[in-house]
Amino acid sequence: MKIAVIGAGAMGSLFGGLLTESGVEVWLLDIWEAHVNTLNQSGLTIEREGITRVVRPNAVTNPQSIGKVDLVIVFVKSTHTAAAAKTAAELVRSDGSVLTLQNGMGNADILSQAVAPGKVLAGTTSHGATLLGPGQIRHAGIGPTRIGPWAAGDPAPAQKVARVLTDAGIETKVTDDVHALIWHKLFINVGINAITALTGIHNGQILDLAATRDLSQKAVEEAMSVARAKGINVEKDVVDHVFQIAEATAANRSSMGQDVDNRRLTEINAINGAVVREARQLGVATPINATLAALVETLESHYGKD
Length: 306
Ligand code: NAD
Known about the structure:
single chain, 306 residues, alpha/beta, Rossmann fold, N-(1-d-carboxylethyl)-l-norvaline Dehydrogenase, domain 2, 2 domains, four-stranded mixed beta sheet, 12 strands, binds nicotinamide-adenine-dinucleotide
């Protein structure tokens, strides 16, 4: 299988690196020239629990150098999904697939507008990675990956991709309800990301004060109401699960927190913003998510102006 990864940051480099190690032909595509140059000159350095190793995937800034591929994996931040979708449509073979494991809601729909919806696979991953600098990442966490077809249809392409990922050490299972899967990952991001981004706290500190727990719980419960109104089968213990994740990742800054710390645009529009958009269409009230989204957008729009 020949694979292109669009967005070779922390996660794209991790998946591309592991797939390269398993013997698959991988092409990392990124617009960040210094990173691509380092990947070509020195390879990709992966650090895991203090041990580093070097892998040598192909890396380019120009998609035309790649040719057609069997699988495109999209790992740009959700703010860049529309641009990545156009590139994915150029790269994927007529019988190939495009997989998104990005956080947030809306990525698979954007991809489905650019490539035939039947080609789009979506899912979630509990692997974690941090970009340390050009050509260097830390493999920060290992966990299950779940994927499935975004539009109802043949599960065979998802099964094939799951086998290739699993063979590369990325344990992957196919689910028949990828929409519910993505909503449940969204609930975690809704409960943790904006609050930590706005306040500067670490994930575990959400649990310290009754007021912060209450805010997180209300944001998650609004998102659960929206999901239920959409016909998603929502689990009962979602809020407990969100709090367990906050505790298990207590010392971490959320990805949105890190984006704000580094004055980068966040994925707010695909997380709390997506809850608000979906809610409007369904006539569900989501004042907490609307407030969190408005505050993060305000923060972003004033970067560098203080
Ligand atoms: P990142 O910022 O490290 O990497 C994104 C990369 O995309 C950057 O290198 C950027 O230059 C590149 N890019 C932007 N626009 C592009 C374009 N048009 N074409 C090609 N490349 C482009 O982000 P990340 O942390 O790897 O996260 C990627 C996605 O995965 C996000 O949706 C994130 O929420 C999700 N995710 C991240 C983690 C994690 O641990 N980092 C875990 C699970 C899910």
